[in-house]
Amino acid sequence: MHAEISFIGLFLEASLLVQLVMLTLMGFSVLSWALIINRRKVLTTARDDAETFEEKFWSGSDLSRLYHESNARRDSLAGMEQIFYAGFKEFVRLQKQGRAQDSILEGTYRTMRVALSREVDRLETNLSLLATIGSISPYIGLFGTVWGIMNAFIALAEVQQATLAMVAPGIAEALIATAMGLFAAIPAVIAYNRFSYQVERQENHLANFMDEFSTILNRQVMTGNN
Asked: Which residues cross the membrane (predicted)?
């Protein structure tokens, strides 16, 4: 009796459609956890790298020296350092062309804005997939539940005398589909909300740095003109 009401037993006795629903939800669960682990690593690294570079930036280092250090490893730059590198590179290029002050600052800011947008896109990679898993998994599980219960009542109608023992396995397999849908959805929704908040905070952090850096470049231009 125990074997019949175990998870494996119920899965093997379930209809093909309910089995497909369970396998799909198991796949969603595995995928969502893989995405959660990956995004957590990416966001933690981005935050730590930003803090490290910001500390170096505000330590009083010469901007040209900091730029050359970044340029030496330009292929691996990301986050705040990438925004700094892109902005300062454009700033130097426009200065060499003899552009007007407003043109230099506007072009530099626009370049940093593009770098910021790319960084946010990188941090948000696969977050929409997490949101999709979190939103559709309960409905897929509910579909399996409805199908399983429907089969249980159809089987019940074919017998003369119905007992709880006859209908219990069918209802149990149906409810497992719902449980698996929630099991896949809940971590995905929690992770999506948390990561979205972290991305928003990181974006604000980078935007504030971009504004502060623009102010520093503005002072340099005004000093140079004077």
From this structure: 16-37, 127-150, 170-192
